[in-house]
Amino acid sequence: xxxxxxxxxxxxxxxxxxxxxxxxxxxxxxxxxxxxxxxxxxxxxxxxxxxxxxxxxxxxxxxxxxxxxxxxxxxxxxxxxxxxxxxxxxxxxxxxxxxxxxxxxxxxxxxxxxxxxxxxxxxxxxxxxxxxxxxxxxxxxxxxxxxxxxxxxxxxxxxxxxxxxxxxxxxxxxxxxxxxxxxxxxxxxxxxxxxxxxxxxxxxxxxxxxxxxxxxxxxxxxxxxxxxxxxxxxxxxxxxxxxxxxxxxxxxxxxxxxxxxxxxxxxxxxxxxxxxxxxxxxxxxxxxxxxxxxxxxxxxxxxxxxxxxxxxxxxxxxxxxxxxxxxx
Length: 328
What we know:
The protein has 14 helices and 10 strands. By secondary structure, the chain is an alpha/beta fold. The termini are far apart. Strand 7 (about 140-145), helix 7 (about 155-165) and strand 8 form a beta-alpha-beta unit. About 45% of the residues lie in helices and about 15% in strands. About 45% of the residues are buried. An 8-stranded parallel beta barrel has the order 3-4-5-6-7-8-9-10, surrounded by 6 helices. The protein has a two-stranded antiparallel ribbon with strand order 1-2.
């Protein structure tokens, strides 16, 4: 069994990655219902928390249906991160995850996310301060290094373990790659095979099918895998991977009524949690995958991504099923 402190994650946990404007409570709960073993929040600004910024505070919401759930923090100031971790603790997640991997410019320019890969001493000091000042298990998500000439993930893993983290997720790209190119899992393998590594290591990057998940499980020594972009608009990927790992059999793709039902429930919950304007806007990235490979939907998918009224969108979603039934 894989454990984070006292938390039992199962034999080979599947984790939902923290994704900005994606991994919110509505989507996290859907992913848990459809097979994700662990979910993590969108990354939350430590500066925003200590300033009591409404958007950051709102992201602290966690619900029983999500557990086990981690709250992810990012920031470049050690004291601010330490103070923010205490605020996170009050929200009662199951663990705290530190973001040392986000590659986007607006985060890196603040000395946060993947920027800290260039200062391992600071990374370790920040991690240790957070570990020492919370009763919750602390985990880290990071990348291989800043660029191909400075890959330092084995050193980083060993030092973070020494600092007290209970688990480490490695995205198998460098910061300079962003989300391009092929994720190099051979570096994850160097970490998992190191004789001094004792904590669970979770692999992330390019896991987009049950077959790929099985190959990663069998060949790289990871304790579990984290799924990000492949889950957007397709939360069924978790149950498909779980079933395949256990049986070697592929589940049939979700039928149209299931797609309509889950999409409509997701939209409804998104609006309830974020308000109509934001809820509608942030759902747009999900529609292409919710209704992928369904014929004659190009026009409706386009309308879903431009409509601004909740009623109009719900009608469009229902129209998808009605039109398909008529065409059959």
